[in-house]
Amino acid sequence: MTKSLLLFLIGLMAAGSTAAGSVAVRSGATDRTGASQPAATAAAAASNAPAGPDADRTVATARAAQGAKQSALHTDIGADSVQCCPGTAAQPDDRRRYVSNLDSLQHIGQVTVLGQRAASKIVPVQVLDGKTLSRLSALSVADAIRYFSGVQIKDYGGIGGLKTVNIRSMGSQHVGVFYDGVQLGNAQNGQVDLGRFSLDNMEAVALYNGQKSDLLQAAKDFASAGAIYMTTRTPRLDSARRDNLSVGLKTGSFGTANPSLLWEHRLARRVTSSLSAEYLYTTGRYKFSYAKKDGYDTTEVRRNGDVRALRVEGGLFGQLKGGEWRAKAYYYNSERGYPGASVREEPGKFKHEDRQWDQNFFAQGSLRKRFSKTYSLLANVKYAYDYLHYLSDPRHDVTTMYVNNHYYQQEVYASAAHGFDIFEWWNASLSTDFQWNTLDADLVDFAYPTRNTLLTAAATAMRFRRLRLQGSLLYTYVHDKTRSVGGAAPDKHEWTPTVVALVDPMPGSGLNIRAFYKRIFRMPTLNDLYYTFIGNKYLNPEYTTQYDVGVAYTRGFAGRRLRSLDVQADAYYNEVEDKIIAMPTSNQFQWTMINLGHVEIRGIDLSVQTLWAFGPVGVRARVSYTYQQAQDRTDPASEWYGGQIPYIPWHSGSAILGAAWRGWDLNYSFIYTGERYESVANIRENYAQPWYTHDLSLAKTIALGRHTLRVTAEVNNLFNQQYEVVQCYPMPGTNIRIKINFTL
Amino acid sequence: MIRHEFTRHRAAYVLAALALAAALGGCRKDDEIVRSTSTQVIFEDVKGPVKGFFLLNEGNMGSNKATLDYFDYETGVYTRNIYAERNPGVVKELGDVGNDIQIYGHRLYAVVNCSHFVEVMDAHTARHIGVVSIPNCRYIVFKDRYAYVSSYAGPVKIDPNARLGYVAKVDTATLQVLDTCVVGYQPEEMAIVGDKLYVANSGGYRVPDYDRTVSVIDLRDFREIKKIDVAINLHRLELDRYGQIWVSSRGDYKRTGSKTFVIDSQTDRVIDSLPLLANSNMTRCGDSLYVYSTEWSWITERNTVTYAIVDTRTRRVVSRNFITDGTQKLIKIPYGVAVNPNTHEIFATDAKDYVTPGTLYCFGPDGRKKWSVTTGDIPAHIVFTPYKLQPLGEEGKNEAGRERGADAPTGGSGTGGVKK
Would A384 disulfide with which of A362, B103, B118, B345, CB 3.0-4.6 Å? Predict the structure, then answer.
């Protein structure tokens, strides 16, 4: 199967047939977002939240054993999954078309759209634009992503808890996370904590299944099974306005204070700058309850969940003839406590005092330019530095053992993508990326790994009247080095194809049928390969194979109450092979990573989005639903063979209902996650209850001369549901937030 | 117009699907206490002093899933997860990571490592009596009216990394810690001979500077009187009938392999070593020491497991496979081992991947499988009981009378209610 597709793809690339139309490359100018934005990184260094440090602490001791156990919990099949919710997709450009005659919703139209144009829905994509984001009761990008379909967020609770995303149950390490067009890396553990990315200056968050379908994009954009693109705001200055200054403050439950500042400035006719800064403080304290029918009923307070975080980012944005350039620097500095798992303990007896400090810095630049009718270029460069310090000190917490580890990661990245518009209907691209990563840590017997990665992608797209085709082939070469001779993993050479097709059976009808096939892998992380005691340098890459068929229907209805309708439905089958899991080895105190797991995922993602006009009131409603059967197919002899993998609900969904009237915005959002199990052993002991939260927000925008004041009040988890996304990590009950934003 | 209808319907279907999902997957129900489940594993009424056994499942760290199982020799029924339903009022059930279980007098003691206490229960009913608060507690032994519990959580001196562990002396009547005695780094199992308590120091947190000693405490004044140098990373201790203490060294998982050593409690000297006997866990019955070991091979990427029997009198390995019928091939990660001192049945547990329920195997003295049963997560520690566990709902009949004399010491046997 794979082979024949591959041949098909090669055929496509070689072909020189006939037909018409240009897809992505062409849209260089229009498409500014996505690929062209420079990018980003990492703050995310995302370190490891609970898993990492715990794993450290152990490895060699008794508790080591248990720590490793815990990491197993995290890496085990599907364990990385979790929670979810559905979401919905916005197709901003389509929306834009219909919105214009809808005053109260007009602002939506301002949103710069993420690269999605006509070509857009060739792969399933879901977008939340800036306005929607600002109305949602969401503080971080992770909160917003919960509204997408086919996604689970693993959330350790509270503002500071680790939040990672898992697309279509393939595992969070298969998700590429891009910040202004450049991937955020974490070579150490492959996880990006989306809870650290504020929505404060976010202009759009998009989720792609398979890959973004621009043709002119970096090789990295072809290199994950699914991707999240965060796009920050670009300056909006018209000729009359040289500066744009706004200040904001969020406050509310958990002792939260979150001031922010945005300054946009025109430096020259074609050059603008932007400075965005934000400080977050929260005590992270909240009450939570556990109660059993005819049994205990307890209410406790989550402690040591405080966060102090500073984010500063600055950018320069320039226009060129036939293109644009951007440069950005990002700095994030935080300190946080780890409240730990909420397990049985004598109430109030011991305090958890584990702490973590992070510093993340990156600078990136991007240039996109069309040099001739047939040739355009996209170049990206980036440097990133990530520092993590984890401290567990028995002088503060008598139950713990001393762990004091520092990790330093660096990344250098450069990419060049060349686009060729051969005919109106046929274009092609060739992109090459180089990446260098290094990890340093003060661990015993540490390997000090360095990784060099070379990626090359060749892609082509053809557009006919009723059919569009895209194919790409990615070659990845990975070469690792370690300080000790012979300690490095063997080189990897991997070839991975993608084929995408879109049929437009009745041009102009708004109905499209699409399908894609993609095979891609994730490299074992540096932890998987080299972590003292646990690492296994002989690991193979972990592969995923995806098959997707879907329909999309988009239509506007001028003059009717229902102004626009957008429906997407996809059915898919995914396989994860050679899944990297932790396995106990020579005794219960030592674990290693091995390629063992095999998972089969069958799912359906649905989303419907509508815009309505009832007289002066504009209403938007979106609903999403996800069904997933994600089964462990590792060991036919196991009693649990075929079990639903941990934390994947069979049913999940979300709904957003918003109304706008004369500067007032009322928004209701609902998230539902159905029953699921905390282990592949789908038994009562591991059963997790469904959970669902209702959030409500009301905002008023007031014009004060040239200035604008916007005040928002939110009530989240309206019915005070006590729930967990991850076992033993209780989530907050009812909480409130007040946001004030003043634009000078 | 037609198209318009069509799209409306489509939206309606989606909404209906969502509503249906919500209805099916459902709303939250009252969170019920998870009830026990019983399995008839054998039809055989075994008489004798051993009425059954409790099995403590550790549960993965951070999951609060330590659970207690019970097997009844009279009925041949194995019951999983008995603690929660017998103690519905105890917040968050048994706790996080069960590390040791023993019976002393009429009480059942479970050391719950990451909940930082020893859970004390009535051995006849498995009902909660109280807890002994000891941070990072590991193992428990008894003598006279005291329990002794090893703990990693010693005082922190200038270097927080050089934190010694201690042994706590607990009054079994009041459940109060009376005294603590600082020993080596990260102390593990203990054994009592006369007035001396031996504790194996691992130093597992101090890689690569493992501890390599067994501390000896004089129980009369509860002071450490000496340290016996043995080997790195010590873990298990097992006392035999000749006053010899068998000690396991875990090695460093790299160059230095796991080994077994013997200390003479008369002289407090290492008198023998069995370098070829890797030792992950051991238990003794009569003169037979049952030892299993798991060694990881990078070549096959598998664990190689040995199930050996050592004659404690001659100190010779007499068998390299106490499982004789090939069942060992089914065991992925051997974890707990126990031998019924009455029937000489051998029990071995399989912890599998640590995040799904394990399996308990029962073998006859000939090493042939008699039965097996699914347990909780990470089945690990077994204690045989001289009392039949009262069925749920019938317990409490004689409780008052029994409790009165509950902690009368039963003699110097040190471990539990059933003598080996």
Answer: A362
